[in-house]
Write a structure and sequence with these properties.
about 0% strand; mainly alpha; 4 helices; about 80% helix; about 100 residues
């Protein structure tokens, strides 16, 4: 039978350390990945996650306010869609009863 593959898990702290070593530039990303036995794709994924989290953390108040406004608008539209769906169901039942 086939062997079950074991995957390593990395703590958030360990991921951060590996990415920071790669970002420092003392060694190439390829060397860092080889040293830690990870793929470059995984390294770049972690790097992108780190940078995105940093962008979100440093986002200005206006950006966060804009996100809140968009979420509020989505909630309103979802409620309106729910009401219209309900109205269509009632209208469909009424038409079936008419026949």
């Amino acid at each position: 039978m086939s062997e079950q593959r074991k995957y390593r898990t990395f703590t958030a702290q360990r991921k951060l350390e590996i990415v920071l070593v790669g970002l420092r530039g003392d060694r190439s990303v390829r060397e860092v990945c080889r040293e830690h036995a990870i793929s470059e794709t995984l390294f770049y994924g972690w790097r992108d996650q780190l940078l995105e989290a940093g962008r979100e953390r440093f986002a200005g108040k206006e950006e966060r306010q804009g996100e809140r406004e968009l979420r509020r608008k989505v909630r309103e539209l979802e409620r309106a869609l729910g009401r219209k769906t309900y109205e269509l169901e009632i209208a469909g039942e009424a038409l079936r009863g008419w026949e």
